[in-house]
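Hey,
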Amino acid sequence: MQTPETGPAEAVAPLPEAPPAPAPAGQEPEPAPAPGGWFSRLKAGLARSTAKLTDSVTGLFTKRKLDDAALEELEETLIAADLGVAAARRIVEGFRRTRFGKEVTDEEVKATLADEIAAILAPVAQPLPIEPARAPHVVLVVGVNGTGKTTTIAKLGKQYRDQGLSVGMVAGDTFRAAAVEQLQVWAERTGARFFPPAKPGADAAGLAFDALTTARAEALDVLLVDTAGRLHNKSALMEELRKVVRIIRRVDEGAPHSVLLVLDATTGQNAVQQVKVFKEMVDVTGLAVTKLDGSAKGGVVVALAQEYGLPVHVVGVGEKAEDLRPFAARDFARGLLGLD
């Protein structure tokens, strides 16, 4: 049996806002106040990233011809804003083809930037496909501890419950008692089936096996499986994740049907490295990018799309369940540039 690695205590993500208490029988619940549409919240959440990017662009082109020197400055600006070298070069080449030698204003540059970024993001803007016919559709949620895995499971679980799906939540990060407790509270609030470890540090693969066996018997629509993320001991984590996959395939040879890697936007370019590491461990099928509202590094989503081309299923800009939404390329690109 594995023993927990030693190291500093890991912060536990705050619990998403609790759903409202059910209304008395025969009484319709009051609708929750709408604090603006999703695009408004996304744009507000990206404000720090927007400032980092546009403050550098502003003044770069003031009735100035887009010559080689200007394009070089633009490329450096994009790299500094965490878009990555490959994406920056692609965007600059787009400017070279369409704007070279012309005088351009700041607004024209921002609008063109948004279009170029949207073109990079469009192929990866794909929803997380849930197929209830699988009964259950197993989503293995992976990522470094602290990125928001447990909170993402809670938010997704609530959204699926709101859609009328039956949901199971598996507390597979068995060494972190706080993560287990957090997931249990959220499962109880949403009416999801909760699968806890028998004791702290219990075998995560065995828990996943038992949970999937029960979930199949009960015909649950979705099974969300939390996992450990102790990346400071990569070999042990790799073996644990591979064992989870190997064991659950004894129940369903097609499982996990989705492997969702959760990334924290505040880590910037380190998120690119995390994708590389987790792709070596498991067959990552898509990404969730969290904490965009706490970061000036939202441009890393562009770098991830250019570098790996993995579907970006959802992005998060807050702690409430509705602050995790499907990724939309044009909205994100225009929000990143501060455009309506």
